[in-house]
Write a structure and sequence with these properties.
By secondary structure, this protein is of the alpha/beta class. It contains nine helices and twelve strands. It binds flavin mononucleotide (FMN). Flavin mononucleotide binds near residues 186 and 229.
Length: about 280
Amino acid sequence: MTLVLRHPVMIAAGCGGTGPELAPYVEMADLPFVTRTLTRDPRAGSPGARMAESPSGLLNAIGMDNPGVAHFLEHELPWLVRAGAQVFVSLAGSTLGEYAELARRVGAAPGVAGIEVNVSAPDPGGAGIFEAREPFHAASAVAAVRRATPADLPVLAKLRPDVARVVESARAAVEAGATAVVVGNAVPAALPGGRPAGLTGPAIAPVALRCVTEVCGRLPQVVVVGCGGVADVAGARALLGAGAAAVQVGTALLRDPTTAMRLLAALGTDPSTRPREEP
Ligand SMILES: Cc1cc2nc3c(=O)[nH]c(=O)nc-3n(C[C@H](O)[C@H](O)[C@H](O)COP(=O)(O)O)c2cc1C
């Protein structure tokens, strides 16, 4: 199976709210939208300050604040499906069994277009989720999700932007059944004072480009979605030029939620970035 996106621009996990917040600024119909990461049980997230600015980047320590998968399926998914979005549900478990349970519940929900396995949280220990420290850990979570998910539903593995391990992680994730890999997530960093956080935004664009270039160069048969620091058409084209099939946009939406629409308008007319045809 392959990943069929209706557009080459996706909304990155956690950066499009639950959907209605973004809707005034984008055409939701056909938009590939990744939800914030959902866990089995509701989580209150980190106490205290959760965001800080750094030069050309954003630091966040949200701690996977989310209402739990049952609330999502009952109260958030129906709106996204009615709006016509191509909904990819981001999941994280504290154990492999939890990844599988989440995948079973989400995979059975009508209207879900795919699952994104979050194996790249910048502070998994602090958020209380399974820590994919080594590539085989990430692969184990992907395998647990793949086994519990209908065969025709794409499974994306969202990998750490760890230049030294990203090719190995991508290979392991695909061998474990991932349809595509998202390269990557926030760069592990710290808030002033030292609390673990994730760095995102323009500051990490060169890291994402390096990771995407490595994975696409070494694993040309793997479908790669580039993510990290995309804020304008040039940034998106850089990742697509390195071999990504699509890009995700995150932090840029917090500053200007029309960014996704502007990217789509520009890239949608570019024949090299037209979404794939259904095989
Ligand atoms: C406020 C905020 C919330 C985020 N929430 C999630 C999340 O729930 N799950 C996840 O996998 N990534 C999450 N991310 C990471 C983004 O999806 C994206 O991978 C990262 O920000 C890098 O892309 P960017 O530089 O375009 O923002 C979040 C990022 C931000 C800024």
